Amino acid sequence: QVQLVESGGGLVQAGGSLRLSCAASGRTFGSYLMGWFRQAPGKERQFVAAISRSGGITNYADSVKGRFTISRDNAKNTAFLQINSLKPEDTAVYYCAASGYSGIDSSIRDTVYDYWGQGTQVTVSS
User: Fold this and answer.
1) What is the dihedral of CA 9, 14, 19, 20, to 10 degrees?
2) CA 73 centroid distance within chain
3) With contact defined as beta carbons under 8 Å apart, do 69 and 81 qualify?
């Protein structure tokens, strides 16, 4: 069982930056593929980024490439999402998720994730 708690969201002006954190409970954080998703009001949940168990491989949605950076610190049981050059269309609730069995190739599919956090709101004003 893994519990995930996101933090770091907030209200920011367009062009600004935020660093989201996802703190995980348990001793086996390093055995999970970690992903970030987002959901804007009235829209479906959308893949944002994922990182392999070792942190050596990452995957990004085309819409965030070059602006978002996913990372992890297995010693601290924490995953991060650095968000730069924020745009109003980035406004959403951001969720982190953990997958015990999937590889990076399937990381865009929300169905492969076993555990989800409660989400953190990111609001970008124009």
Assistant:
1) 40
2) 14
3) yes
Contact 33, 91 (CB under 8 A): no
Tens of pLDDT, residues 95-114: 999 999 999 999 999 999 99
Helix (H, G, I), strand (E, B) or coil at 6: strand
CA–CA distance, 70 with 20 (Å, rounded to integer): 9
Cβ atoms within 10 Å of 125's Cβ, excluding its own = 11
Instruction: Summarize pLDDT for 4-54 with one digit per residue, the tens.
Output: 999 999 999 999 999 999 999 977 999 999 999 999 999 999 999 999 999
Cα separation, 122 vs 9, whole angstroms: 5
